[in-house]
User: What shape does this take?
Amino acid sequence: MLQNRVLLFFLICFLVLVSCDSNSVLDTYKAVPNKWHKDSIISFKINPPDSTNAYNLFVNLRNTNAYKYNNLFLIVEMVFPHGKTVKDTLEYRMAEPSGKLLGTGYTDVKENKLWYKEQVVFKEIGEYTVNIQHAMRENGKVNGVIELEGVTDIGFRVENIINNN
Assistant: This one.
Protein backbone atom coordinates (compact mmCIF):
# COMPACT_ATOMS: atom_id res chain seq x y z
CA MET A 1 0.00 0.00 0.00
CA LEU A 2 2.79 2.42 0.94
CA GLN A 3 4.69 1.51 -2.24
CA ASN A 4 1.65 2.40 -4.36
CA ARG A 5 1.36 5.80 -2.69
CA VAL A 6 5.06 6.52 -3.15
CA LEU A 7 4.87 5.44 -6.79
CA LEU A 8 1.78 7.61 -7.33
CA PHE A 9 3.52 10.59 -5.71
CA PHE A 10 6.55 10.26 -8.00
CA LEU A 11 4.35 9.80 -11.04
CA ILE A 12 2.44 12.99 -10.26
CA CYS A 13 5.69 14.91 -9.65
CA PHE A 14 7.08 13.64 -12.96
CA LEU A 15 3.95 14.69 -14.86
CA VAL A 16 4.01 18.16 -13.29
CA LEU A 17 7.66 18.65 -14.21
CA VAL A 18 7.20 17.39 -17.76
CA SER A 19 4.16 19.57 -18.36
CA CYS A 20 5.85 22.76 -17.12
CA ASP A 21 6.91 25.20 -19.81
CA SER A 22 9.95 27.07 -18.57
CA ASN A 23 9.87 29.56 -21.46
CA SER A 24 6.37 30.79 -20.75
CA VAL A 25 5.96 34.07 -18.90
CA LEU A 26 2.26 34.40 -19.82
CA ASP A 27 0.09 31.94 -21.72
CA THR A 28 -3.63 32.56 -21.57
CA TYR A 29 -6.68 31.92 -23.74
CA LYS A 30 -10.16 33.39 -24.05
CA ALA A 31 -13.05 31.48 -25.59
CA VAL A 32 -14.76 32.85 -28.67
CA PRO A 33 -18.55 32.44 -28.82
CA ASN A 34 -19.99 30.32 -31.67
CA LYS A 35 -18.82 32.87 -34.24
CA TRP A 36 -16.21 35.61 -33.92
CA HIS A 37 -17.95 38.88 -34.83
CA LYS A 38 -15.80 41.39 -36.74
CA ASP A 39 -16.41 44.05 -34.07
CA SER A 40 -15.55 41.73 -31.17
CA ILE A 41 -12.18 42.57 -29.64
CA ILE A 42 -10.40 40.02 -27.47
CA SER A 43 -8.24 41.80 -24.87
CA PHE A 44 -5.36 40.61 -22.71
CA LYS A 45 -3.71 42.48 -19.86
CA ILE A 46 0.05 42.03 -19.47
CA ASN A 47 2.16 42.94 -16.47
CA PRO A 48 5.72 42.26 -17.69
CA PRO A 49 8.08 40.81 -15.07
CA ASP A 50 10.81 43.35 -15.83
CA SER A 51 11.82 46.20 -18.14
CA THR A 52 15.26 44.92 -19.16
CA ASN A 53 14.84 41.46 -20.75
CA ALA A 54 13.54 40.86 -24.26
CA TYR A 55 10.60 38.53 -24.93
CA ASN A 56 8.95 36.87 -27.92
CA LEU A 57 5.21 37.46 -28.31
CA PHE A 58 2.69 35.14 -29.93
CA VAL A 59 -0.99 35.08 -30.79
CA ASN A 60 -2.36 31.61 -30.07
CA LEU A 61 -5.42 30.35 -31.86
CA ARG A 62 -7.55 27.23 -31.66
CA ASN A 63 -9.76 26.41 -34.62
CA THR A 64 -11.92 23.57 -35.86
CA ASN A 65 -12.64 22.13 -39.29
CA ALA A 66 -15.41 24.72 -39.57
CA TYR A 67 -12.66 27.28 -40.35
CA LYS A 68 -12.95 27.49 -44.14
CA TYR A 69 -10.16 29.88 -45.12
CA ASN A 70 -6.52 29.30 -46.09
CA ASN A 71 -5.34 32.35 -44.22
CA LEU A 72 -6.22 34.60 -41.32
CA PHE A 73 -5.98 38.38 -41.07
CA LEU A 74 -5.79 39.89 -37.60
CA ILE A 75 -5.53 43.40 -36.28
CA VAL A 76 -3.38 43.31 -33.16
CA GLU A 77 -3.05 46.45 -31.09
CA MET A 78 -0.68 46.94 -28.15
CA VAL A 79 -1.54 49.74 -25.75
CA PHE A 80 1.38 50.84 -23.59
CA PRO A 81 0.98 51.90 -19.93
CA HIS A 82 1.45 55.59 -20.79
CA GLY A 83 -1.07 55.58 -23.65
CA LYS A 84 1.04 54.95 -26.78
CA THR A 85 -0.61 52.49 -29.17
CA VAL A 86 0.95 50.30 -31.85
CA LYS A 87 -1.45 48.62 -34.29
CA ASP A 88 -0.46 45.89 -36.76
CA THR A 89 -2.41 44.09 -39.46
CA LEU A 90 -1.08 40.56 -39.67
CA GLU A 91 -1.65 37.67 -42.05
CA TYR A 92 -1.13 34.03 -41.14
CA ARG A 93 -1.36 30.91 -43.27
CA MET A 94 -3.89 28.52 -41.75
CA ALA A 95 -4.10 25.70 -44.30
CA GLU A 96 -2.07 23.88 -46.91
CA PRO A 97 -3.05 24.34 -50.58
CA SER A 98 -4.90 21.00 -50.30
CA GLY A 99 -7.13 22.53 -47.62
CA LYS A 100 -5.62 20.56 -44.72
CA LEU A 101 -5.55 22.80 -41.66
CA LEU A 102 -2.18 23.67 -40.18
CA GLY A 103 -1.48 23.53 -36.47
CA THR A 104 -1.02 20.86 -33.85
CA GLY A 105 -3.60 18.50 -32.47
CA TYR A 106 -4.97 15.04 -33.19
CA THR A 107 -8.65 15.91 -33.04
CA ASP A 108 -10.58 18.33 -35.23
CA VAL A 109 -9.31 21.18 -33.00
CA LYS A 110 -5.97 22.59 -34.15
CA GLU A 111 -3.71 24.86 -32.12
CA ASN A 112 -1.65 27.51 -33.88
CA LYS A 113 1.17 29.49 -32.29
CA LEU A 114 1.48 32.57 -34.49
CA TRP A 115 4.42 35.00 -34.31
CA TYR A 116 3.43 38.50 -33.27
CA LYS A 117 6.68 40.26 -32.30
CA GLU A 118 10.14 39.13 -31.36
CA GLN A 119 12.72 40.53 -28.97
CA VAL A 120 10.29 42.95 -27.33
CA VAL A 121 11.53 44.85 -24.30
CA PHE A 122 8.73 46.24 -22.12
CA LYS A 123 10.49 49.51 -21.25
CA GLU A 124 7.49 51.19 -19.63
CA ILE A 125 6.54 50.07 -16.14
CA GLY A 126 2.86 49.18 -15.75
CA GLU A 127 0.08 47.25 -17.43
CA TYR A 128 0.04 46.70 -21.19
CA THR A 129 -3.11 45.75 -23.09
CA VAL A 130 -3.18 43.63 -26.24
CA ASN A 131 -6.36 43.82 -28.34
CA ILE A 132 -7.02 41.28 -31.09
CA GLN A 133 -9.77 41.27 -33.70
CA HIS A 134 -10.14 39.52 -37.02
CA ALA A 135 -10.06 41.41 -40.32
CA MET A 136 -11.16 38.69 -42.72
CA ARG A 137 -12.47 39.45 -46.19
CA GLU A 138 -13.61 37.16 -48.97
CA ASN A 139 -12.04 37.58 -52.40
CA GLY A 140 -13.89 40.09 -54.54
CA LYS A 141 -16.05 41.40 -51.70
CA VAL A 142 -15.70 44.88 -50.22
CA ASN A 143 -17.31 44.18 -46.86
CA GLY A 144 -15.48 41.99 -44.40
CA VAL A 145 -16.61 38.68 -42.99
CA ILE A 146 -19.15 39.65 -40.32
CA GLU A 147 -19.02 36.42 -38.31
CA LEU A 148 -15.97 34.19 -38.61
CA GLU A 149 -16.73 30.52 -38.02
CA GLY A 150 -14.37 27.85 -36.73
CA VAL A 151 -12.28 29.85 -34.25
CA THR A 152 -12.87 28.56 -30.73
CA ASP A 153 -10.21 30.33 -28.64
CA ILE A 154 -7.79 33.23 -28.94
CA GLY A 155 -4.72 33.36 -26.75
CA PHE A 156 -1.70 35.48 -26.09
CA ARG A 157 1.73 34.20 -25.08
CA VAL A 158 4.85 35.94 -23.79
CA GLU A 159 8.00 33.79 -23.82
CA ASN A 160 11.52 34.16 -22.52
CA ILE A 161 14.02 34.09 -25.36
CA ILE A 162 16.07 30.93 -25.43
CA ASN A 163 19.79 31.55 -25.85
CA ASN A 164 21.58 28.61 -27.40
CA ASN A 165 25.07 29.83 -26.57
